[in-house]
Amino acid sequence: MMTARNRPFLHLAACAALSLFFAAKAVAATDVLIMTDRELGEPMARAVAPLRSATHSVDTGIRAAEAACAPMAGARPRLALLARVPSQAEVELCAGNARADAVAVPIARQAVALVRPAGTPVVAVNTTELFRAFTAHDPAPTTGTLLLAPTGSIAQRMFDGRVMESGCVAGLPAAKLPFDRAERRDFCAKTRADGSVSQRSGGAADVVAWARSAKPGALAVVSVAELPTIGDAVAPVALDGVLPLAVDIAEGRYLASRQVALLIVLPTDTDKARRDAARKTVFNLLAEASIGPSGSLEPADIVVLSPAERVASRTRALGFFE
User: Fold this and answer.
1) CB neighbours of 220 closer than 8 A, spacing ≥ 6?
2) CA dist., res. 190 & res. 268, Å (int)
3) What is the pLDDT along the chain (322 residues), one digit of tens a residue?
4) Nearest-angstrom CA–CA distance, 85 and 82
5) How far apart are CA 56 and CA 49, in angstroms?
6) Which of 92, 134, 186, 321 has the most beta carbons within 10 angstroms of its beta carbon?
7) 26-109+258-319 sits in which CATH class?
């Protein structure tokens, strides 16, 4: 049965753009194709760039899962960083389509939070109320203010997709919503133009400055990874009754979070040189210096997995090459 979750893996043969993509991205025989899903944005692509010799950031209308599982990539190993962990059925479908062996492992988490200035009254927010308060599609006046994260940042992309879209789907009749997922997210993310919504261009210092002058009822969008840097200038707000605590993010109870996964696709006719190159790249990508605390992926706003989870992912991925 086709679902929204497995559809990207099922429409590979019809994606003519993939043929053009691979035709334009010729690489040396020992190179490994590393693809960053467009959902993860440029911060993730930049974070993994030092680990690879061939950079292929799939962020121009092609999903990394589609590209990694496409047969036209030939015998080149592919490593795809995805904004969710694919199901086992999806991994098997990918392997069959690419005539390859494949495995997917979680490597990190990402989460976005709403915060209030420290010292202001404690508030709890649900996604439907938040959407109605700040959407451009509701003409009713609002009393609060909202500071958005920088355009294109992981925090803002997640806020648009995980928070505003959830409230939009719950708060508007289905007939008003665009069917296409990308169009729906853009529709739902459109905010008011009456001065109640603003957007920062910088990092944690901008949030600290905002907190000093913001009034009660003001909210700001930040990544959970930013919270330690912002410090005690702000306090997290419960979203749909759940705070962005590590345990709730890890166990999937916090709505505005996701896992980042590494999908490894190793074609059955991959030669030893390419296989060894892929294994070395995976080893570097999953090393503590990459996915651990203060690792090289930190600029991509990741929340690191627990030590046991990191070891499990590393063991499974490297065992895949044995």
Assistant:
1) 114, 115, 116, 146, 147, 200, 207, 210, 211, 214, 234
2) 46
3) 334 444 455 454 444 444 444 444 444 444 788 888 888 877 888 888 776 654 444 443 457 888 889 887 778 899 999 999 999 999 999 999 999 999 999 999 999 999 999 999 988 899 999 999 999 998 888 878 999 999 988 899 999 999 999 999 999 999 999 998 889 999 999 999 999 999 999 999 999 999 999 999 999 999 999 999 999 999 999 999 999 999 999 988 999 999 999 999 999 999 898 899 899 999 999 999 999 998 999 888 899 999 999 999 999 999 999 8
4) 7
5) 9
6) 134
7) alpha beta
CATH topology of 26-109+258-319 equal to that of 111-250? yes
Looking at 73-180, list the stretches that DSSP marks H as alpha helix, in order from N- to C-terminal side.
88-98, 127-134, 154-158, 165-171
Among 150, 148, 157, 149, CA closest to 59: 157
Residues 6+ apart with CB under 8 A from 291: 107, 108, 285, 297, 302, 304, 305, 310, 313
* Residue 128 identity (one-letter amino acid): T
CATH of 111-250, one of 3.40.190.10, 3.40.50.150, 2.70.98.10, 1.20.1440.230: 3.40.190.10
Q: CA–CA separation, 275 vs 267, rounded Å?
A: 9
Round to whole Å and give the CA distance between 98 and 197.
Answer: 46
In the DSSP assignment, the letter for residue 110 is E
Among candidate residues 13, 57, 8, the one with its CA nearest the CA of residue 37: 57
Return d(Cα 52, Cα 35) in angstroms, integer: 11
The two structure tokens encoding residue 68 = 């990694």
- Give the integer Cα–Cα distance in Å for 135 and 142: 10
Sequence spans of domains, the chain: 26-109+258-319, 111-250
For β-strands 234-236 and 100-117, DSSP reports them as: antiparallel
